[in-house]
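--- STAGE predict ---
source: upstream dedup step, 1 unique chain passed
mode: sequence only
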Amino acid sequence: MPKNQLFKSIPDLQIVQSVLEAFGSDNIEDTRLFTKEHMQDVESVQKLTELIPTLKEYYIPCKSKKYLADLNEKKCITILRQFIKIHHYKCIGMEKSVKGKKMMTYRLIYSEEDYLKSPMSKEKQEVVVTFE
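--- STAGE serialize ---
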């Protein structure tokens, strides 16, 4: 039984680093903003396409068919999000207006919340401990 719904083996930081480099990021702690235009400049799609044989080793076969076929900027961001989520990071997108043109900007953030916890678990629960 796979450990995860996406991956047959958990991606280590080495493969995550390779994915990040395709986006022009130095490492998982790099918080610089990037856009789809930036991805075109650094050739993210081409770089991730070259990584497909390695990425396939991590994905469950049916998921690799879905996510690794016909790569484009949007699919590349999805792959990035999937690989960093395992290490408690998120890629957040924010719409920004640059010279009157709206564009999505993305950046990595560390997410302390365990991604397996439900939002309900944030609620504080009162507990009374008695010693008799």
